[in-house]
C-alpha cells in the first residue's frame, strides 16, 4: 500500500493523516514512552453544522425585543428553563440543568466569527481553520493546538480523533489524526471478516513491516484496539445514568467515551451534529429545533455522565458557523445571521454563569440591522481552553494574526 504525504481515506471506517512515507504516528509512538498510558487533559470540540439559532437555544427571556421580533417561534417565558433571571434554556434542554447547577456548564452568548460571510461553507471553513476571512490556511486550529502541548513527545496513535467517516478540516494538518466512523467496523489484522478492506490493508502493512520504527508502543496501540473489540463494542454498557439518545450524534459520543475510557491516549476529539438550518417552520417549544436540541443536550449530558471521574480532566466546547436572524422570516423560520451561543462543559469549567457582553436586540444594537452582534470572538473561548487546559502557550501559532493574551480571556476555566 503506497502511503503518500497525506493519506485521506474518505467514507471508510478509518482515515489516517500522516506526514511521511511511514505513518508519522507509528514513528512517534515507537520513540515515545508508554503511548498507551498518556495521562493529561482532553479537549473535545462539537460542531453544530447548519448555523444554530442561539436566540432560541439560550433565550434572552427578559429582553422585550426578542418576543416582538419572533411572534410565532419565540420560546414563551413560562416555558423557558430560567438560568439567571435574564437568560434561560430551551425547554428541550432540561438535561443541561443539572450540569449548570453543579457549575460544570458555562455559556458564552453573542459569540462567533468576526467575518461577515453568510455562506455555510466559508463560515465553517473559517471556524475550523481558526483564521476568519483567510481562505489560504491549509490546516485546522485543533490540529495546530497539539504542536506545543507539554506531552507532545509521547504521541499516541489515537491522540487526535474525529468521530465520522473522514477527517474534518479542523483536524487536518501536520499532527497525525484518525477519523473513526464506527469502532465495530475497525478491522484488526484481518481477523475480523466484517472489517473494511482499507483497515485490514493498513494493518497488514503495519504488521508485516520489519522496520523497527513500526514496533514498540505502536504495537501496544493496536493491542488496545484489539482489547476494545474483544469486549464487543456493540454491547458496551455506559455508566449508570448515561442514557444516550438514539442517532448518529449520541452514537458518536458513546464511542468517544469508550475510546477515552480504554486509555488510548486521546487528547483532542471532534464530533459534529447537523440539522440546524431552519429557514422554514423552525418551531418553538415543539418542532424541528426542539427535537434536535433534545438530542444535542441529552447526548452531551450522557457523555459527561459516562466519563465519570475522567470528566475532571475533560473540557467540551460547542460551536456553530454563525447564528440566525433576530427576526423570524415569513416562513416561520430564521435566516443566516451573525452571533451565536457556545457551551463550555468540563471539570475545570467555572460554570453556572453566562459569559460575554450582551449587545442587546434593539434595532440600533443589531448587526447590519438584522442580527445579534458578535461581542466575543470564538477564538477567545477556544483559545483559553487551548492555553489553560491543554497547556499550549503558543497561541499565535494556533490562531495566527489574532491577539489572544491570557489577560483577555473570559476566565471560564479554573
What can you see in these coordinates?
The chain is α/β, with parallel strands linked by helices and 414 residues long. The protein has a single domain, classed as 3-Layer(aba) Sandwich (Alkaline Phosphatase, subunit A), CATH 3.40.720. The protein contains twelve helices and 13 strands. A hairpin with a 4-residue loop joins strand 4 and strand 5. The protein starts with 13 loop residues before the first strand and ends in a 16-residue tail after the last helix.
Question: Largest sheet, described in full?
Answer: 10 strands, mixed
Sequence stretches where pLDDT stays below 50 over 5 or more residues = 1-38, 187-202, 208-217
Strands, total number = 13
Strand content: 5-15%
Tally of individual domains: 1
Mean pLDDT: 85
Shape: globular
**Oligomeric description of these chains:** single chain
Q: Report how far apart the termini are.
A: 47 Å
CATH fold node name: Alkaline Phosphatase, subunit A
Rg from alpha-carbon coordinates: 21 Å
Percent of residues in helices comes to: 25-40%
Classification by helices and strands = alpha/beta
Amino acid at each position: 500500500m503506497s502511503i503518500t504525504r497525506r493519506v485521506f481515506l474518505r467514507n471508510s471506517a478509518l482515515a489516517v493523516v500522516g506526514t511521511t512515507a511511514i505513518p508519522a504516528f507509528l514513528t512517534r509512538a515507537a520513540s515515545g514512552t508508554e503511548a498507551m498510558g498518556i495521562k493529561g487533559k482532553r479537549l473535545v470540540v462539537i460542531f453544530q453544522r447548519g448555523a444554530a439559532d442561539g436566540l432560541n437555544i439560550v433565550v434572552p427571556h427578559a429582553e422585550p425585543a426578542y418576543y416582538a421580533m419572533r411572534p410565532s417561534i419565540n420560546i414563551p417565558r413560562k416555558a423557558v428553563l430560567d438560568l439567571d433571571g435574564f437568560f434561560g434554556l430551551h425547554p428541550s434542554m432540561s438535561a443541561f440543568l443539572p450540569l449548570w447547577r453543579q457549575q460544570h456548564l458555562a455559556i458564552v452568548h453573542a459569540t462567533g466569527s468576526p467575518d461577515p460571510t453568510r455562506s455555510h461553507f466559508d463560515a465553517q471553513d473559517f471556524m475550523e481553520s481558526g483564521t476568519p476571512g483567510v481562505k489560504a490556511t491549509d490546516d485546522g486550529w485543533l490540529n495546530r493546538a497539539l504542536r506545543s502541548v507539554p506531552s507532545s513527545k509521547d504521541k499516541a496513535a489515537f491522540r487526535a480523533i474525529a468521530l465520522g467517516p473522514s477527517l474534518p478540516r479542523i483536524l487536518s494538518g501536520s499532527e497525525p489524526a484518525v477519523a473513526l466512523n464506527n469502532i465495530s467496523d475497525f478491522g484488526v489484522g484481518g481477523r475480523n471478516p466484517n472489517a473494511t478492506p482499507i483497515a485490514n490493508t493498513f494493518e497488514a502493512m503495519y504488521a508485516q513491516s520489519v522496520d523497527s520504527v513500526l514496533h514498540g508502543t505502536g504495537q501496544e496501540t493496536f493491542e488496545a484496539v484489539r482489547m476494545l473489540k474483544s469486549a464487543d463494542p456493540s454491547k458496551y454498557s455506559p455508566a449508570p445514568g448515561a442514557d444516550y439518545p438514539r442517532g448518529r450524534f449520541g452514537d458518536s459520543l458513546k464511542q468517544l467515551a469508550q475510546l477515552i475510557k480504554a486509555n488510548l491516549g486521546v487528547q483532542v476529539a471532534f464530533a459534529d451534529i447537523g440539522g440546524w438550518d431552519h429557514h422554514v417552520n423552525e418551531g418553538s417549544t415543539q418542532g424541528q429545533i426542539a427535537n434536535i436540541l433534545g438530542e444535542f443536550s441529552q447526548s452531551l449530558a450522557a457523555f459527561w455522565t459516562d466519563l465519570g471521574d475522567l470528566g475532571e480532566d475533560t473540557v467540551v466546547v460547542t460551536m456553530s458557523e454563525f447564528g440566525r436572524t433576530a427576526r423570524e422570516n415569513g416562513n416561520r423560520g430564521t435566516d443566516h445571521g451573525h452571533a451565536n451561543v457556545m457551551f463550555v462543559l468540563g471539570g475545570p469549567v467555572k460554570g453556572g454563569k453566562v459569559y460575554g457582553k450582551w449587545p442587546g436586540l434593539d434595532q440600533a444594537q443589531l448587526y447590519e440591522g438584522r442580527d445579534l452582534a458578535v461581542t466575543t470572538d470564538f477564538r477567545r473561548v477556544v483559545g483559553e481552553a487551548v492555553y489553560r487546559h491543554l497547556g499550549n502557550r503558543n497561541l499565535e501559532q494556533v490562531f495566527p494574526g489574532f491577539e489572544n493574551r491570557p489577560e483577555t480571556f473570559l476566565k471560564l476555566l479554573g
